[in-house]
Amino acid sequence: MQITSSDTPTTGTLYELLGGETGLRRLVDAFYDRMDREASCAGIRGLHPDSLSGSRDKFFWFLCGWSGGPDLYLQRFGHPRLRARHLPYPIGESERDQWLSCMQGAMTEAEVPEPVRRRLTSSFFQTADWMRNQPG
Known about the structure:
Blueprint: H1 14-17, H2 20-37, H3 42-45, H4 53-66, H5 72-77, H6 82-86, H7 93-109, H8 114-130
């Protein structure tokens, strides 16, 4: 992958461009911290268990492999089957938008470089929209 910006490395995996394990953990923690504290994200927060520690770990493990780093999720659980794993939860446009809002804020908080952010925003929107299983 090639990303261009005067202050960002131009090549490498998303995993490397995000700062490896440390950068990804920072992003995941910022994401779940926002979900936990933002009243506007109560709908998506309500779909998660009381403790977010397991969700944090699974999302971190998933993002490691998805972004080109170690396949930690795959090693533990096999193929992610994202849509199938999320089917039991009602996900409509509101939940999609809340998830994306948490991620946008997390990317800002984790200081993800703008060129990387643009790429992630596009990918995250496509995936979040694909996860919808409710009308509207």
